[in-house]
Amino acid sequence: MYHQNRHTHPKCNDGCRWVCGYSCQIVRQLEDNKARTNADEQPAHSGTRKHLDDFSLDQAELNTILSPQLRDLFNAAISVNSTAFQDTDPETGEVIFIGSKTETALLKFAKELGWADFQTTRDSAQVVQMIPFSSERKAMGVVVKISDRKWRIYLKGASEILSKKCTQYVVVHRDGGGPAEGDVETFAIDELAQDNISRTIIFYANQTLRTIALCYRDFDVWPPRDIEHGDQNEVAYDDLARDLTLIGITGIEDPLREGVRDAVAKCRMAGVNVKMCTGDNVLTARSIAKQCDIFTAGGIIMEGPVFRQLSLSEMIEIVPRLRAGALLPRRQEDPCRDTQVCWRDRRCHWRWD
Q1: How many domains does the chain have?
Q2: Given 105, 141, 154, 189, which is the most exposed site by the fewest CB atoms within 10 A?
Q3: Is the same domain home to 222 and 276?
Q4: CA-CA distance, 16 to 160, in Å (whole number)?
Q5: Strands 166-170 and 186-188
Q6: Where is the domain boundary, 227, 253, 279?
Q7: Is 312 found in the same domain as 218?
Q8: Residues 256-287: pLDDT tens digits?
């Protein structure tokens, strides 16, 4: 899925971009956004296409190919595992979604498709455990009771992390085929599927899209057998976040605000060297920094953990060329978490925090 977020509240202007399962590429207003899909991508060198089952679909047609059970699963994964809500904009009087840009974009996607109301879906869920978002694990989740013999965890978070915890993916057929009743159809993630998932994440990131994965896992008892749990039957995240099933990966864009490039240019003219810090992955960080004219030839993009492992002399040497930092999770015990580097020749103080 591809969403654009502007100002405070998300706007879905140019289109929505999803890879559902791993082969169905869903784009809002596909005809005007063909560059947002790589489903028909040809090999760089002579040879045959590697991922023959890939296909693109306009978001407006999504309901025609999803089975009822997959649609309900998709909607629940968005609605239940979310803290966003609806309220009235005091300036416009319009009913809007309030919350993080990621969650409001997902809720708007489900609403545009006419799926079951998010609040009704959320209120009907029997929640047994909440897993708040953590910058260390880059994910959030919720465990709900589906029936007397089934419990399910919905997870949402950084695609490059969660996708590696998945062993299966949901199946979407081009012709809308598949079981009309029963469980959602899934396939095991083999080497080809894993390659396609990684390829899609990179494709999104190179378009400055923040990639988010939606996953789930079912249990036949709660708490799960042979897993330690607390007094309230709460189970550790690491014990739950494995053997997951991938529902889809979404790409969400936050376009630059007007004037950003001009501001960077004026800073540079004044002798101020602008550096960018972001919670996105390295590829997305690079793409955004290029858009802002922060990343230039000879510049360096570096992850926080890598930077903090450098010696002080190495930091001082690298900082002049450092253009952007991807701030991945930092452990509390990290002895370098308060590392500071003083870039004396430009009288600029750099803090990596």
Answers
A1: 2
A2: 189
A3: no
A4: 20
A5: antiparallel
A6: 253
A7: no
A8: 778 888 888 898 889 888 888 776 677 777 77
- Closest by CA position to 307, among listed 289, 291, 295, 321: 321
The domain boundary, picked from 196, 231, 253, lies at 253
Same structural domain, 163 and 57: yes
At CA 150, angle to CA 167 and CA 68, rounded to 5? Answer: 75
Q: Which amino acid is at 96?
A: I
Catalogue the E-assigned strands of 164-290: 166-170, 186-188, 210-219, 244-253, 276-278
Give the residue from 35, 67, 40, 21 showing the smallest Cα distance to 253: 35
Residue 240's domain comprises: 2-253
Q: What is the pLDDT of residues 101-128, one digit of tens each?
A: 889 999 999 999 999 999 999 999 999 9
Q: Does the predicted model carry a pTM greater than 0.90?
A: no
**Alpha-carbon distance 136 to 298, whole Å?**
30
Look up the CATH number of the domain holding residue 296. 3.40.50.1000
188 and 170 Cβ atoms separated by less than 8 Å: no
